[in-house]
Amino acid sequence: MTRATTEPPADTIAPPPAPPPITGRLRTIALFAVLLGLLLDLLDIVIVNVALPTIQEEIGASPADIQWTVGAYTLAFATMLVTGGRLGDIYGRKRIFLIGIAGFALASLAAGLAMAPEQLIVARFVQGGMGALMVPQVLSILQVMYPPHDRGRAFSALSVVFAVGTVAGPIVGALLTATNIAGLTWRTIFLVNLPIAIVCLVVTLKLVPESKAESARRLDIAGAFLVGIGMLLLVLPLTQGRELDSAMWMVVSLVGSAAAFTALVVVQRRRVDSPLIPMSLFSHRSFRGGLAVSLLFMGGVMPFFLINMLYLQMGQGYSVIKAGMVGVIWGFAVPLFTAISARRITPKLGRLGLQLGLGMLIVGMVLLIAAVNTFDVISPWALAPGLVLGGAGMGMTFAPLLTYTLNDVPLDAAGSASGVFNTVQQMGAAVGIALSSMVFFVLLSAQSLPAADNQQAAFREQLTAQGVSPAEADAVVAQARTCFEERIELANPAADSIACRAVAGRADEFQRDATRMTYQKTMERALVYQIVMFFLAILASFVLPRRVEHR
Question: What's the predicted TM-score (pTM) here?
């Protein structure tokens, strides 16, 4: 049977009809599934921090491996975020979201089964890339499922998910690692993603409507490539420089990064058809200032969680559960002061409220430095004032930042501007983690020598008092010092070596006190990095308007 109809020209084909709306309970279930995918991403950004010492001990990760385990995720997320959003516009938000959640689950499985640091780092990189496919679709999907007059509840749920992700990450990681389900220890923090992802996949596939941009455009491949290369060449020397000990390749890499970003600007300015980053956005002063504040703010706040966990677990000997609970002190203050800032402070104080939040972060870091300096053996209560103030400052800064950044951006460019804003935040996190970690481990190595000198004399006197001959005492002290220096180099206070086995049981007090002193002095100095970043963010914030003019 022959069909007599004639196909219309390709350019006159009508767009596909809008998906039928879903309402009621089914829409609520669909919202839950989409937000569950977002929660997986939020948790996996921070959940790994508390398990790092356990990971290091079990698979022999180096300090650079630790940095890459954290930084690989944020690096991939930052480089893929704008591209992920554009792919959803072109090929369908639901489709890209499903690909992202499926890939995230497979990467989580690979991370949970990793037997070497390199395998874990690759899995984390893929996780970050898949997260970058998921996250940009969430807001678009919510806008499709909810009409304008009904979006308030959906966006409120979105805010709750962000708060839960901030608070729950450290404690969930601690609980999963410490309970040691089926002998898997740290692996459960990744494997737990599998059943959650399956639920998210099934519900999304059945209930979430598909949608695309009204005018699908081609992907800016050149722009995406230049962003990725620029970020890689920037973060690589900050993460691996200490390991490879070569200044020349670091310089070459950083110069290459600058060249890639310069080429990106040139390419984006010349591109008329669907640029990855519309350069017209940067003509708005508030947008430029907001990006600068976001870059510095995220570059200071996100690395804090990593170095704090290293200090508590490796320097103070905290258990994974205890360290996780200390992190919750900060985490609970974030959503509380986010709400207070959005409802009370920002409407009254405007830009000053954001600056007050950054100032509170600085004071919080100063209080933490004072506590670390005062107590050789520190309790959570001694850290609590600085942690609460820091979390409050983070909430007060984060709440108004997006609004102020997009204040002068035209409404028809808000989507692109939001994507660029999120990307810059993740770039700040990735670069900040790499730079702050490099500072921390360089300081750790530098502080180890005076700490060993300080404890060495007392240890020799102790051995002599026990009746050990001077020659034997010198030999034991030398082996104990070698053991200590090797463990500091590996950033692992429990690392095994020939020197450590030779003094096993005889130098425990020396090792404990020297390690504690090294991490104590390192933490005091490393927190100065955070103070500098937050101070620079305050300076950048003066570019922002004093108040938001609602339009």
Answer: 0.79
